[in-house]
Amino acid sequence: MGFRATVLTLYPEMFPGHLSYSLAGKAMERGQWSLDSVQIRDFATDKHRTVDDTPAGGGAGMVLKPDVLARAIDSTCENDARPRLLMSPRGKPLTQERVRELATGQGVIIVCGRFEGVDQRVIDARKLEEISIGDYVLSGGEPAALVVLDTIVRILPGVMGNDLSGLHESFEGGLLEHPHYTRPQEWEGREIPAILTSGNHGAIEKWRHEQAVALTKERRPDLLKD
Ligand code: SAH
């Protein structure tokens, strides 16, 4: 069975979104991965189907109720060993390393927050792993869930046309990737670096590595620390 993703959201119609296109979409059609979205509101019990309430202690906005969210989570993951992720700007920043770990598992359960976020007790009680996609604030977890799933699906075995194309990518080996060129040989007076058309594969590898190191030093010195 393929990689199984379950997304808990107030906007299930946002899924699979862009993941139904291109390589991810084809891989889904082939059954290499699947996505179910669960409407959190279906687990509200009052007649207005309330999912949120005002923050304890006061302040702006609304908070997702723990009882409703917990019922939604429990409906999907009884006897389920898949990691449970909560999209959250307070979470651990997503890394290619964590993506690779997730891609080797059976799947993921992803909770999308909305409003000011979710009640802390459900995070603790259901052991949700908070993951951030960057230091900025989205209006909801759905785009973040699509980002997380995109990063995972593209590295599932057999999904990318050429499985080797992941090898030299940015963050693999702790470096940003070297620059790319393609024909025409000359464009607006700019040439492809001669070494790339030399046919000397050893020299090309060496040049690409040097470029990757230089770029990483200049743009992301933090990556070189480890
Ligand atoms: N009040 C919260 C922000 C809530 S944003 C705070 O200041 O921390 C609403 C929802 O969008 C969040 O619950 C989360 O699910 C999602 N979200 C916002 N920014 C995100 C980010 N950088 N990464 C992942 N999810 C994010």
From TrEMBL:
Annotated residues for binding of S-adenosyl-L-methionine: G113, I133, G134, D135, Y136, V137, L138
Entry's family note: Belongs to the RNA methyltransferase TrmD family.
GO CC term, one of those recorded: cytosol
UniProt source species: Rhizobium gallicum bv. gallicum R602sp
Major location (coarse): cytoplasm
Keyword Glycoprotein: no
Ranges where the tRNA methyltransferase TRMD/TRM10-type domain occurs: 4-225
Cell compartment(s), UniProt: Cytoplasm
Transferase is among the record's keywords: yes
Complexes and interactors: Homodimer.
Pfam families xref list: tRNA_m1G_MT (PF01746)
Protein name as it appears in the record: tRNA (guanine-N(1)-)-methyltransferase
Taxonomic superkingdom: Bacteria
GO biological process: tRNA N1-guanine methylation
Reactions catalysed according to its record: guanosine(37) in tRNA + S-adenosyl-L-methionine = N(1)-methylguanosine(37) in tRNA + S-adenosyl-L-homocysteine + H(+)
UniProt-listed Enzyme Commission number(s): 2.1.1.228
Function: Specifically methylates guanosine-37 in various tRNAs.
Entry keyword set: Cytoplasm, Methyltransferase, S-adenosyl-L-methionine, Transferase, tRNA processing
GO terms assigned for molecular function: tRNA (guanine(37)-N1)-methyltransferase activity
Top enzyme class: transferase
InterPro entries reported for this sequence: Alpha/beta_knot_MTases (IPR029028), tRNA_m1G_MeTrfase_C_sf (IPR023148), tRNA_m1G_MeTrfase_TrmD (IPR002649), tRNA_m1G_MTases_N (IPR029026), tRNA_MeTrfase_TRMD/TRM10 (IPR016009)
